[in-house]
Fold this protein.
Amino acid sequence: QVQVIESGGGQVQAGESLTLSCTISGRTFSGSSVAWFRQAPGKERERVAFLSWSGGATYFPDSAKGRFTISKDNAKNTGYLQINDLSPEDTAVYYCNVNSPIGSYWGQGTQVTVSS
């Protein structure tokens, strides 16, 4: 059974940084791309970062460029999303999505709350 678990969320002050983690069990990260999405209350889920399976390609929307960094450690089956200079607009549940050749897997999300 494949399971994706996010961690690292919490309540922080504006201007601080967080690193979210995403660990997959039952499947390896090798050969998989990883993406992070977020969903704020009353809003649609949006993709905020993508990393290709090789690690050679990334994507960030304008709202994330310069502040978000995505990475993965295949040996640890873990992906990361570092968010710098957090603002209240970043408050949302953050989800990890792992896409492998045989399936797409989602975690349950981790809450990030930023106060001004």
About this structure: The chain has a mean pLDDT of 93.
